[in-house]
Amino acid sequence: MEQAEIGLIGLGVMGSNLSLNIAEKGNKIAVFNRTAEVTRKFHAEAGALQNQIVPCETLEEFVAAIRPPRPIIIMIKAGDPVDQQMEHLKPYLSAGDIMIDAGNANFRDTMRRFDNLKDSGLTFIGMGVSGGEEGARHGPSIMVGGTEESWKRVEKVLTSISAKFNGEPCVAWLGENGAGHFVKTIHNGIEYADMQMIAEIYGILRDGLGMSASEIGNVFGRWNTGRLNSYLIEISEKVLKANDPITGKPMVDVIVDRAGQKGTGKWSVIEAQNMGVAATAIEAAVAGRILSSQREERVAAERIFGLPKAERPKDGMAFLADLENALLAAKIGAYAQGFAVMAAASAEYNWNLPMPTIARIWRAGCIIRSQFLDEITSAFTKDPHVANLIVTPAFSKMVKETDGALRRVVSYAALSGLPVPALSSALSYFDAYRRSRGTANLTQAQRDFFGAHGFDRLDGVDKHHGPWGSGLEEFA
Ligand SMILES: NC(=O)C1=CN([C@@H]2O[C@H](COP(=O)(O)OP(=O)(O)OC[C@H]3O[C@@H](n4cnc5c(N)ncnc54)[C@H](OP(=O)(O)O)[C@@H]3O)[C@@H](O)[C@H]2O)C=CC1
Ligand SMILES: O=C(CO)[C@H](O)[C@H](O)COP(=O)(O)O
């Protein structure tokens, strides 16, 4: 029997759809799932693709079904299960075989797994996949990290299954070891910020302007034809217009306002902090999800403090235009922060991450796909090493056109008691970033006062402590 080109372990939401996508693009694939019943059901329901899929119930049978050197995608629950699965698989593999973790792994785990396999003759690829269920089935964005040689072995099949933007495949080899999973993590960090900002605008429309879910859906629908055109705005319109089949009410109105999170947003923030990069919009988005989860406390606090009355803006149409521009301005801040984190990581881990390529492969297939990412691709192609996306000619122009709107929206929200942590942090990030004389001179003076930490002087004079003595005089 003809051997399979590739194998896949884990027929959950992502793995089953990815397998069908691989099979549909003409690649024969062997599949295995911990629970064999799932494999049987998957194969039975594969329809016309059945002949392209080899269902296997033991790992021995599974490995034997794949042509060496064997690329094996592991698409299972992230964390310990991946280590366990790799250990179970290893005894059946031969030199040159490639284990590919396609889940949302922490890049530190990926680096460890990569290193652990170094002397075994086996290879490891850490591969970020984005696009959810639909993307996995019809074309995800794929971020690959590993050796260039192992990438060459899988390039053809991954290119065949990836999303295409104007015919260009949304897959790329981004660097060694943890590069692919790091980039996927930051993709998700940006996704958190993008979603949080959209939710904050939704909050203003709902609680400030008193609009219904479907009216807000219409607003997002209109915005999706303009500069905010993106998958997240598109699905926001759809979810806002959907009704609950049980109550007939708008679906969003019966969903508990408590956001889940699986870890990639938090890892983005941790890594940004570790590398000394300000990723305030992503931090605000993670904090926003944390606060949302403290629902009982919020309910109790509202009983104590009540809610301020939100005044309707005088000119509704002008305010709607401001909201659209505010979202764009804040979004630029969030993406600038995400790319700055990746630039720092690239230097820290010697990955040489290709910023234009990253923007290019996010233009289609992934959750943050948008027209906007095409503009980011152009900006980074013109200047791949620019310090911050905000200062590129195209984006500085956009910021100048929209920051006033963000300022008015954040002011309105503050006066109305409407929480806008991501929008306001993006505004403050911009205001801090573009101000040559900040306020850290006072912080430095304080640090020197209480801890003799020293400071630099503007005039360059070689005197690094203030005239405040030890700072302990008041206790004498
Ligand atoms: N859902 C999404 O939108 C996206 C998910 N991801 C990532 O992809 C990965 C898979 O997610 P998803 O498909 O949604 O998950 P599902 O919950 O749908 O499927 C989980 C899969 O993992 C298997 N599994 C769980 N524990 C173990 C274990 N200890 N050993 C072996 N297999 C195990 C399950 O097998 P069994 O049937 O036996 O339980 C099942 O096949 C995760 O890392 C996720 O973060 C990435 C991008 C998007
Ligand atoms: O990777 C994804 C999308 O890109 C997954 O859907 C992931 O689960 C999203 O993260 P979270 O569950 O923390 O919201």
From TrEMBL:
InterPro entries attached to this UniProt entry: 6-PGluconate_DH-like_C_sf, 6PGD_dom2, 6PGDH_C, 6PGDH_Gnd/GntZ, 6PGDH_NADP-bd, 6PGdom_BS, NAD(P)-bd_dom_sf, Pgluconate_DH
UniProt-listed Enzyme Commission number(s): 1.1.1.44
PROSITE patterns linked: 6PGD (PS00461)
Pathway: Carbohydrate degradation; pentose phosphate pathway; D-ribulose 5-phosphate from D-glucose 6-phosphate (oxidative stage): step 3/3
A molecular function (GO) term: phosphogluconate dehydrogenase (decarboxylating) activity
Annotated ranges, domain 6-phosphogluconate dehydrogenase C-terminal: 180-469
One protein family per Pfam: 6PGD
Signal peptide, first to last residue: none
Catalytic reaction equation(s): 6-phospho-D-gluconate + NADP(+) = D-ribulose 5-phosphate + CO2 + NADPH
EC class (word): oxidoreductase
Source superkingdom: Bacteria
Subunit structure: Homodimer.
Protein family according to the UniProt entry: Belongs to the 6-phosphogluconate dehydrogenase family.
Name of the featured protein: 6-phosphogluconate dehydrogenase, decarboxylating
Lineage: Bacteria, Pseudomonadati, Pseudomonadota, Alphaproteobacteria, Hyphomicrobiales
Underlying gene: gndA
